[in-house]
């Protein structure tokens, strides 16, 4: 509340800090229900940032296609890696002046689909991939269990996209999935555990014996340690 009141133009530093905090995004999952906005035409935007519910996905796709063709091409490449039947993306201007919706072509399906036709998992993955490749990412992006609702096949691709996005923004990703966790290196992982009623942040990479064990046995050992709670205990 104090930051909201600090609107005096003379408080330049505090105002800048308030705006910086306000730009952080917290993605707890996308609304992909059949009646959701993400499945309908939406207004185009000049430089859109993906909303926390994903509702302006089509506007972000239109921005990528027109203004950042390299990112658009990269998005299609990653989609082909994750979804073998995927062919191409497009953007359709329909639903009224200035309205747009994403299009999708898939092997074995005649004609072009729109976002309204995609499965929940495909639409969620498209949201995460678009967010990671967007040139206008928030400075801090928090993601809560992004693996939920996704086919395990796409998780290595998603982890790679997130690693790439972390070069441009700070990403904090919460997961309970052993397989998804195993897509990351020990240096990229932090463990949150409760000690005497307090949440404690620990870096498992600081345990040299643990580091050597995972280097010798591979990423599957990281998943096993997470399942058994050893990762938490030894961090």
Automatic annotation (TrEMBL):
Coiled-coil residue windows: none
Span of domain ATPase AAA-type core: 23-182
Signal peptide range: none
CDD domains named among the record's database cross-references: ABC_ATPase (cd00267)
GO MF terms, alphabetically ordered: ATP binding; ATP hydrolysis activity
A biological process term (GO) from this entry: DNA synthesis involved in DNA repair
Gene3D superfamilies found in the cross-reference section: P-loop containing nucleotide triphosphate hydrolases
Protein's name according to its UniProt entry: AAA domain-containing protein, putative AbiEii toxin, Type IV TA system
Species for this entry: Stigmatella erecta
């Amino acid at each position: 509340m104090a930051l909201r009141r600090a609107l005096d133009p003379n408080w330049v530093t505090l105002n800048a800090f308030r705006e910086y905090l306000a730009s952080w995004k917290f993605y707890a999952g996308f609304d992909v229900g059949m009646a959701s906005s993400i499945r309908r035409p939406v207004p185009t935007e000049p430089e859109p940032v993906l909303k926390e519910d994903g509702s302006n996905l089509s506007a972000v796709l239109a921005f990528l296609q027109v203004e950042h063709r390299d990112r658009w091409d990269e998005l299609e490449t990653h989609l082909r890696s994750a979804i073998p039947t995927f062919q191409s993306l497009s953007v359709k201007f329909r639903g009224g002046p200035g309205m747009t919706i994403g299009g999708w072509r898939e092997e074995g399906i005649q004609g072009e689909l729109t976002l309204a036709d995609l499965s929940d998992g495909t639409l969620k993955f498209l949201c995460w991939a678009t967010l990671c490749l967007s040139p206008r990412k928030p400075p801090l992006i928090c993601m809560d269990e992004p693996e939920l609702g996704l086919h395990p096949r796409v998780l290595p691709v998603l982890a790679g996209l997130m690693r790439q996005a972390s070069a441009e923004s700070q990403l904090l990703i919460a997961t309970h999935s052993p397989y998804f966790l195993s897509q990351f290196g020990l240096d990229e992982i932090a463990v949150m555990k409760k000690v005497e009623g307090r949440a404690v942040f620990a870096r498992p990479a600081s345990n040299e014996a643990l580091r050597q064990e995972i280097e010798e046995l591979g990423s599957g050992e990281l998943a096993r340690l997470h399942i058994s709670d050893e990762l938490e205990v030894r961090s």
